[in-house]
Amino acid sequence: MPIYQAPLRDYQFILSELLNIYQQTDLRGFDEIDADLTDAILQGVADFTTDIMLPLNASGDLEGCKLVDGKVITPKGFKQAYKQYVEDGCATLTCDPEYGGQGLPEVIGTFATEMKTATNMAFAMYPGLTHGAYSAIHVHGSDELKQKYLAKLVSGEWTGTMNLTESHAGTDLALLRTKAVPAGDDLYAISGEKIFISSGDHDLAENIIHLVLARLPDAPEGVKGISLFAVPKFLVNADGSLGEANTLSATGLEHKMGIHGNSTCVMHFDSAIGELVGAPHQGLKAMFTMMNQARLGVGIQGLGVSDIAYQNALVYAKERIQGRALSGVKQPEQAADSLLVHGDVRRMLLSQKSFNEGTRALMQPTSIMA
Ligand SMILES: Cc1cc2nc3c(=O)[nH]c(=O)nc-3n(C[C@H](O)[C@H](O)[C@H](O)COP(=O)(O)OP(=O)(O)OC[C@H]3O[C@@H](n4cnc5c(N)ncnc54)[C@H](O)[C@@H]3O)c2cc1C
Questions:
Q1: Band of the pLDDT at 366, cuts 50, 70, 90?
Q2: Nearest residue to 363 (alpha-carbon basis) of 308, 286, 306
């Protein structure tokens, strides 16, 4: 199995030396943290990702998700791991305390995302999409919508998705055809098909809140006629309990290299009941709160995967013996020296290390602004 050492020393260097965050007491979320607290939180995430998520990465990818009778079953171990993830409060780190979050600065969330994506990107995408849905509703949703959904999304008891793409509408969302028809009581009936929906269906959580882009009947042409809707897998009763199943389902699973443990679904909406997020025809703007987070998240995914690749390349270069160093024998007790003695191997490893450390440092100011 690959090894992983969470770069905790690097994190503390960035927090205290580069960003000097312990002195930024005038910023929201920064006034109550110190090095002991961030150490404890990051160590907790490091333990969870290394002990629980990493062992499920290869097995999850080999087994993959399965679509059985319209329901997605995640690979062995994912359900138990996700339960522990929620119980440990991992989902709540940077979320609004009003809805049960810990209110920590976004930099802590960025480090947590790096550790999660390094050890198991497929698993990390379930809470990743949820956090994006939380943010879009938090920024654009009505008070009623926030009360209905945010606490459960913050805790991770419910998860979220992002439904933009249709088979004929990828980059160009002006082409999308999914319809939303008023159904009374501020509700809408959503009909259409979305593809490539990450975490579209699964067995990790009791409800899934789909954020769906669709057109109202009077919508102008193009991207100015797109609205955003919150469409739950199970309808939510006035007292917060779960009601009947909504008329939506996963009808297919895509296969994406290296992340078969994440369910990438074709989603079919058949007059499914949803509520507006934000104003009519302003849906793309609201969805971009989620999209922009997803873009930053994809950058962090690249760093996470690059760092675990570097760490394992380094272990291999130390263990594998081939040839002798040009400057003379370095390990006479062995039949050959380790790969690490060769200049070009060192150059490649140091390039990886410097790209990773530079990227990690560059990402943090971005996350302070997010
Ligand atoms: C891992 C993964 C997860 C995803 N998860 C989700 C999800 O959760 N929800 C969701 O809705 N979608 C999701 N998608 C779909 C993703 O958003 C689309 O793939 C994306 O919008 C691109 O659409 P497309 O694949 O149809 O490519 P196309 O739009 O067909 O584009 C093909 C190529 O042409 C380029 N191109 C297109 N237009 C222009 C232009 N005007 N100028 C220059 N170049 C252009 C594109 O950059 C691309 O390289 C996911 C995709 C992947 C790979």
A1: low
A2: 306
For residue 245, being part of any structural domain is answered with yes
Mind giving me the DSSP string for 1-64?
A: -------HHHHHHIIIIIS-GGG-TTSTTTTT--HHHHHHHHHHHHHHIIIIIGGGHHHHHHH-
Within-domain flag for 295: no
In 3D space, the residue among 89, 72, 90, 80 whose CA is nearest the CA of residue 56 turns out to be 80
Residues with CB under 6 Å of ligand 1 are 162-165, 170-171, 196-198, 256
- The amino acid at residue 289 is T
Alpha-carbon distance 36 to 15, whole Å?
Answer: 12
Determine the distance separating the centroid of ligand 1 and the alpha carbon of 159, expressed in angstroms. Answer: 23
Q: Do 228 and 325 share a domain, yes or no?
A: no
With CA atoms as reference, report the closest residue to 124 among 141, 136, 137, 111.
111
Both 60 and 23 in one domain: the answer is yes
Q: Whose CA is nearest to atom 52 of ligand 1?
A: 196
**Mind listing the pLDDT tens digit for each residue in 98-153?**
999 999 999 999 999 999 999 999 999 999 999 999 999 999 999 999 999 999 99
CB 163 within 8 A of CB 129: no
- Centre of ligand 1 from the C-alpha of residue 171, in Å: 5
Q: How far is the CA of 301 from the centre of ligand 1 (A)?
A: 17
208, part of any domain: yes
Distance, CA of 355 to CA of 344 (rounded, Å)? 16
Residues 216 and 162 in one domain: yes
Looking at the domain assignment, is residue 230 inside a domain? yes
| Residue range(s) defining the domain that contains residue 197 | 158-289
pTM of the model as a whole: 0.95
Q: What is the CATH number of the domain that holds 27?
A: 1.10.540.10
Domain count of the chain? 3
Q: What is the pLDDT of residues 233-278, one digit of tens each?
A: 999 999 999 999 999 999 999 999 999 999 999 999 999 999 999 9
